[in-house]
């Protein structure tokens, strides 16, 4: 589903696996994307061999924005918080 929704973005890495790795890491022992990148070296997890730390950071950015990206050139809206 993730690959299909993000297909137009043409990621050069497996987006679903890059999203899966830090989630699995956080479920097992917690920590950051950097910690997940080091942690996986001790485990055999299918499909994450070619994923590098910067892929995890890029995937996190996609997740925060949402998979459907806003049109190019359109500024990001800021949310105002009530005082």
Description of the molecule:
The protein has a domain of 55 residues. The longest helix has 14 residues. It is mostly helical. Helix content is 46%, strand content 0%. The radius of gyration is 15 Å and the shape is globular.
Outline of this structure?
This protein has 83 residues and is mostly helical. The chain has helices at residues 2-5, 15-28, 33-39, 53-65. Helix content is 46%, strand content 0%.
Q: Helix coverage percent of residues?
A: 40-55%
| Alpha-carbon Rg, integer | 15 Å
**Low confidence ranges:** none
Strand-pairing-aware structural class: mainly alpha
Q: How many separate helices?
A: 4
Mean pLDDT across the residues is 77
SSE order: HHHH
**How big a fraction of the residues is strand?**
under 5%
How many runs of DSSP E, i.e. beta strands?
0
In angstroms, what separates the terminal alpha carbons?
A: 39 Å
Q: Which geometry do the CA atoms define?
A: globular
* Main sheet overview: none
